[in-house]
Amino acid sequence: MKTNSSTNTTKSKSSVSEVGHAKNIANLNLLNTNIAALGAVYNPSNPKLALANLQAVYAEAYAKQESVNKLLAPYSLAVDEREAVFKPLSSELTKLRKAYKTTQGVTSADLENFMTAFRKLKGVKKTPTKKTNNPDEEQIRHSTSQMSYDQRTNNMDALISILENTPNYAPNEPEYQIATYLAKKENMLQKTQAVANTFIPLNSARDARNKTVYKNEDNLVDLANNAKDYIATILVAKSVQYKAIAKIKFKKQYNE
Q1: Structure confidence at residue 253 (pLDDT)
Q2: Sequence-ordered list of residues with C-beta below 8 angstroms from that of 37, at least 6 positions apart, any chain
Q3: Positive/negative CA dihedral, 242, 244, 247, 252
């Protein structure tokens, strides 16, 4: 079983969370190898525990994990690129406030309107980072995060409108000009949409993987543990073969 080579370049927290799933799948391959070495001794009455079926389950799970791996990298990249756009805004807006404040004719009421949009743009709380393997929870978390970024972009629109409607606001420095902030807003929109576009297929792939490994009636973890239970009935507990198989662990990584 390959590990998450496609996610290593991003070094994201999401890539770390995929390790447990890959380990379960790799361990089934290891269990199957040990079962094959047992030969005719391994002969369960339950056809679902037959080596051929376990190998088929492994192949399906492996393919679905590979699909997750391939989709994780572009999603992580999109998230990183969005963060790169939004993160500098706080310091940039602080300097913009000073440029606006020094504009001829700006009143205290104008400045207060500016500060209202300014505070909204800077005051967004971070999305909770608690790990989850539940695609439904991940969808809710993504929607909440997406909404917060959409709100910031909307607040940027309000800030730009204030600049546009301030008669004497015409700074010579490009970094404070309205055109610069219009470009920033467009970039914010694009980066936020890119996260949404890459999240949807990734979350679907995770759900498909989780069904095979954890959720289906004949899921990988349950079948593997049942196969281990059967092996305990045909091997001596102190034997080298049994001890090797007993060390192969399968854990539930998904909680509904």
Answers
A1: 75
A2: 241
A3: negative
Q: Contact 78/195 with Cβ under 8 angstroms?
A: yes
Q: How far apart are CA 31 and CA 54, in angstroms?
A: 9
Q: Is 118 exposed, middle or buried (0-12, 13-18, 19+ CB in 10 A)?
A: buried
Answer whether 31's CB lies under 8 Å from 242's CB: no
For the record, the structure tokens of 166 come out as: 């301030």
Distance CA 29, CA 34 (A): 9
Instruction: For residue 20, give the amino acid letter.
Output: G
**Do residues 201 and 71 make contact, with C-beta atoms less than 8 angstroms apart?**
yes
Distances (CA, A) of 46 to 108, 144, 166, 208, 231: 80, 45, 78, 25, 13
Predicted TM-score (pTM) of the model is 0.74
Q: 39: which DSSP letter?
A: G
Nearest to 224 by CA among 213, 236, 237, 209: 213
For 47-76, how does the pLDDT look when each residue is reduced to its tens digit (9 = 90+)? 999 999 999 999 999 999 999 999 999 999
Element (H, E) at 173: none
